[in-house]
Structure formats: C-alpha cells, structure tokens
Amino acid sequence: xxxxxxxxxxxxxxxxxxxxSFLTMLGMVIGVAAVILMMAIGQGAQAMVRDAIKSMxxxxxxxxxxxxxxxxxxxxxxxxxxxxxxxxxxxxxxxxVLTAAPxxxxxxxxxxxxxxxSTSVFGTTPDYVVVRDWPMESGGFFSEAxxxxxxxxxxxxxxxxxxxxxxxxxxxxxxxxKQAPFEVIGVLAAKGQSLDGRDQDDTVMVPISSAQQKxxxxxxxxxxxxxxxxxxxxxxxxxxxxxxxxTLRSRHxxxxxxxDDFSVRNLTAIAETAAATTRxxxxxxxxxxxxxLVVGGxxxxxxxxxxxxxxxxxxxxxxxxxxxxxxxxxxxxxEALTLSLIGCGIGLALGVGGAWLVGSxxxxxxxxxxxxxxxxxxxxxxxxGVFFGFxxxxxxxxxxxxxxxxxx
Amino acid sequence: MTASLIEVVNIEKDYSTGAGVFQALRGVSLNIAEGEFVAxxxxxxxxxxxxxxLLGCLDRPTRGSxxxxxxDVSRLSSDQLAALRNREIGFVFQGFNLLPKLTxxxxxxxxxxxxxxxxxxxxxxxxxxxxxxxxxxxSHHTPLQLSGGQQQRVAIARALATRPRIIFADEPxxxxxxxxxxxxxxxxxxxxxxxxxxLVLVTHEADIAAYARxxxxxxxxxxxxxxxxxxxxx
Lengths: 408, 234
Description:
The complex is a heterodimer of chains A (408) and B (234).
Chain A: H1 3-16, H2 18-56, E1 60-65, E2 83-84, H3 85-92, E3 97-112, E4 115-124, H4 127-131, E5 136-139, H5 144-149, E6 153-156, H6 158-165, E7 174-177, E8 180-188, E9 203-207, H7 208-215, E10 223-224, E11 226-231, H8 237-251, E12 262-266, H9 267-310, H10 312-320, H11 325-361, H12 371-397, H13 401-406
Chain B: E1 4-17, E2 20-33, E3 37-42, H1 48-55, E4 63-68, E5 71-72, H2 78-88, E6 89-92, H3 104-114, H4 119-132, H5 148-160, E7 166-170, H6 178-195, E8 198-202, H7 206-209, E9 214-219, E10 222-228, H8 229-233
Parallel strand pairs in B: 3-8, 3-9, 6-7, 7-8
Antiparallel strand pairs in B: 1-2, 1-4, 4-5, 9-10
C-alpha cells in the first residue's frame, strides 16, 4: 500500500468525523500549548534570575547589623545599627576580602525644579559601586574625600534621572533631598531588577557621612545598617566569611558563647538558591505540562479504540478485498499519528501565541520559545501518536475477517 | 474444461463452542474448473457458508487440503491469504458491504489500493469497471445515494477491479427485488460466458441457482448432491 494513500485514507476518516476528531485533538492541543508556554515561562524566569544575579555582583557578602536570629524580645535584624565605619575598614583590610562598603539606606523625597520623586537613598562609600560592579553612565562617582568632608554630592540611578530630569542633562544640577541641596555629579548605568524584584535603578547614592548629617538626621553617626563586602575569589568565600566573623566578634568584644550582634550572609549562595528554585519551578511546570500531553495521548487511544470497534465491519470489508494486517495496522496508526500531529500543530500555534501574550502582559519576564521546546513538543507528540495509536491499531489488525464482516 | 482451479480434498472445519467442538464441515472433496458457474445450496447451518469462507481464503481448514490454482492455501500466512484474495478473488455479499463514506469510485478503487496501484491508475481502472456495470455516470455518488441494485453493481465492479479469476457471491440477490435480481444474475451469466470468470454462488433460492451450470447441495457439513446443469435440465 502506498504511503501517500495512507494519509489520504486517514484524512478522509478524520474528516468524516470532524467533531470527534477535533475533540480528540483538543487534548493534544492543550498539552502541546501547555508544554510550549510553560517552558517559555520557565526559561524566562530563569533568564530573569540569571540577569538579576549578574547585576548583583559576584562573591558578595552582606553583613547586617543585629543578630539574624533574634530570640525573645530582641529587636529584628538591622534595626539597631551595631556596625561602624571602622568595622567596614577592618573588613576591607582582610586578606581574603577585595573591598567592603558601609551602607546606610533609607527613603527620601527628591525635588528638582518643582518635580518630586520618592526614592531609596543609599549613604555609602566609593567602594560600593566597586563591590556591586556598577559602572557609570555619565559623570563620576563621589570620592573618599567627599565622604570624609561630608560633601553634598549625589549620584543618581536611571529611573531617578528619567523622572526628575527627563531629557535634561542632570550633571551639575542641584536637587533637594529632604530639603538639603545636593549637586548631581554622576548617573549610574542601568542595572535592572534585583533578585527580590526591586528596581535597582530607582535610587540615589550620596556619601554616607552626608546622608547621616543631612538626610537621616536621627541616625547614629559613624554607624552603618549593613556592609557589603566582596571576597577576592569564589574559592575564598568560606575563609572570608569566617575571618569576617572572627574580626567582628573580636572588634565587638563578643565572648565565646555570646550571641553575635551582626550577621554575615553569603549573597552569592542565596542567589544560587534562587537560581536552583527557579530551575526546579521550571522543571515542575514542564512536568505538569508533559503530564497533560500524556493525558491527551490517552484521549487519542480512547477514541481510536472506539473507532476500531465502530468500524469493525469496515475493517472486515477491507480485509476481504485484500488488506493485509499491516495495511490495517498502518491505517489506524497513521490516523492516530495524524490526529496527534495536527493537534500538535494547533497547540504549537496556541503556545507561541500564549507566550507572546504573556510576554507583552508581563514585560519584565523575558518569555522565550526556544527551538528546543518546539522540537521537544513535536517529537513527544509523534511518540505519543505512535505509542497510543499502536494498541488500537494492533487490535484492528488482529481482527478475524469473517467475524469482522459479520459485525453490524 | 481445463485443469481444476479449485481442488478441495477431504476438508474439515471445527469450531469450538461453549458446548464442545462443532463440526461445520465433515470431509468435503470437490474440484471446480476454471470458467465454471457453480451454485452452492443448502439450509442454514448446512456448512455452505463455512465452505465459502474457506474457498474465499478468509479462513483455513482444520484438516484436509485446499489448492487454489495449484497453490496450497492451508499453508499460507494471513498476509499471503490477503494478497491472494486481492489478486485472485472477488467477493459480492448479500448486504453489498460498501464503505458508506466513500464514493462509488473510491469503493471500487479500494482493492487496487491494496494491490499497490498508483492513485491515478486506480481511479482510471475503477472508472472503467463502473462503466462496465453501467454506472459510469454515478461514480461520485455515495452508496446511500444509490438504489439497492445500483449498490450491488458497485460491489460487483469492486469485485472485478483487480481482474480476479473467481468471484464468490454470497446470496447476492438476497436484498434485491426480483427484477433487479434478474438483472444482476444476467450480468453474472454474461461475465461467466464472455470473460470466462469462474463464479461460485451461494443461494437458497432455486430460481437463482438455476442460472448456474452446476449445483452443489450441502447438508450437515457434507456434500449431498453435485449435479451438472445438463442433468438438471433433463
């Protein structure tokens, strides 16, 4: 029997039962669309996390004021600044630490030329942008001298530049941060979203001394909420963490058995956990989608079995006039395969369309339909067509021609 | 006539039923030569249908031998039997057994599909066969759009499509009125007379059997009568 006529026969059989064929296909359509969409979203989420990690900087520690585990009535971490600028300098001087920057964060209203914008203010030192691997777009960052003298200079992020200045060049302009005038001396390059979903470009950075004097007037002098530190390499992360701990304990005179008044967190490890979580979520989504694909395949098998039973007489007639067992087998197998592949095609279109829709509704999620996911969906549909089509087809081929002819 | 086309020696067929083994055929031996027109008669349960299924290569005997055109059929696989049915045998059934969703043309072309013929050649030959049974104009009708007599003619065209040597007709006029029956039987006679196609006809109606030139009667799984038309006429 010629192969093209097999498809012709299959197509004819499916076309004469349009509604049933469509409903049978629906399982495959939904399954394939789900696989494509879920993989696209999973890949997008992974790409997002990857970008966030990249923007964070590498081999990072964050040393928070206060204990990480606060028992009883003790205040939460970060609420009582126990870290000093000298602590930051001491950490920076450690052998395994590349550099470290104290940070005093807060929120403040910015005003320029009648326009105001509320944003997060970071009081810090020039080391901060080194630790964060954060380049400038224009102008420069403030210097150690600016920090020592408490200069009223500010470096603004992309969002702040856009909101306050629009198309104007911000460099050299005076903005007011909580009424205190600051001169903008630089604009940071775009950084994008952080791991916790905040827009890192919506920020203004000032010398930590100026921040404490002019912006957060209630803060304790020479104290930092947290210190960002960068280890010299990935391998030295563990040693660096231990030495930071030891250094701070001895500097804060914490005896053995006493609880730390600070906590060191390995940000890189946290980032890796986030990446792993996203990967697992991605696999989970894909698995659920794959299950729906298998359910679609079972639907095809179900209908093909019904079809074989219904068409027993037809099979008998075909056998009587010379159809061999394998002709009948092929006929029903190709029918199942045609169903699953057409379903796959429609599902692909829906999945790609859905991915596009999600991408345009959630712009920060870079939804990507990879050729691999398309290939996977098509391949799996083909296998499902063969796998779930084979049993009904073999049943049809195994019929006895005389009994098949006798059936009504 | 020439050498036997069908050579059956001591054929037996058992069916196992819930109550034990039922012997449908209990030792049948006969020859049918090429170009014969044979009527097989008998009451229901006489074994004539079982015998037809065996002759038509739809089934294999339990014991005994069956040679079709010199070939031992009882040794063939089911796929070889299918190929043999396709090439050498045409079937005409009481209920026509056309595929209702296909046009007359596609129905007639179906055996040619299994013979491995290309699409255009199939359609051409099927069209020629339909013209031969006088339905050249109806090739794109589906069976439901045709009368019973026309459906049976489509079925005959299908049986003829691969140019077989034998046609087995199982109660071909059972669902037809007497006028249409006569037309169908005349057509069979003409096929047999003019083209030398061997015809084996199963019927229980004497006037239909009268078209044949040899009559074989079955009873309880055995042949009880086998007479030539000359003897019948006498």
